[in-house]
Amino acid sequence: MIKTALSKIKRLLKQPSFTTAEARTLGVSPSLLAYYVKKGEIEKLSRGVYCGNESTRKEVPLEWEDLIATARSIPSGRVCLISALALYELTEEIPRQFWIAIPNEQFAPKRPKTKIIRMRDVKTGSTHMKTGSVSIPIFDKERTLVDSFRFLASEIAIKALKEYLSGNHGKPDLVKLRKYARKLKTPIEKYVEAFTT
Q1: Planar angle of CA 58, 49, 76, nearest 5 degrees
Q2: What confidence tens digit (pLDDT) does each residue in 156-180 have?
Q3: 9: exposed, middle or buried (C-beta count within 10 Å: 0-12, 13-18, 19+)?
Q4: Strands ordered across the beta sheet of 114-119
Q5: Cα–Cα–Cα angle for 17, 141, 108, nearest 5°?
Q6: How far is the first Cα of the chain from the last one, in angstroms, to the nearest whole number?
């Protein structure tokens, strides 16, 4: 029966990581996952996130491995703020913790080295980013920039905006940026004008 259960999640074992929820949908319980960890068949990456011996985890950039595991362990979470700015290469700040946004009404899960930010709106600018062979939930660049002015030191936000507007990371979408700023009631227009005129 144990081997049969392992064969049920064979597809998951080839992924860089998988969650308890994904295993459960294939009929494998959390207690069986714990058994496989003890037997060395799979590895526990973080709470509710695992990988198998057949894993292609090497395809995931090593520097983001822990962030990806953390993000995947919080189903309704989105990578945000410093972590998102770093992924988009819009900051020189070194993330000392993983920044994850969750819906305001949700209980904040505890994760090591993780800063959970409760937000009323986690839909605006919500997208996925492919990192190696894994897709992670994240806010797009424009939402990340607006949130930077809402939650971070103005110096960090201004530097990130300037880098974004430089065009070194793709063509800036000023329409979307301004739309998000209005929707989230964040006055950034004077900075946008200063760097674009």
Answers
A1: 115
A2: 999 999 999 998 878 999 999 999 9
A3: buried
A4: 114-119, 98-103, 78-79, 134-139, 126-131
A5: 55
A6: 68
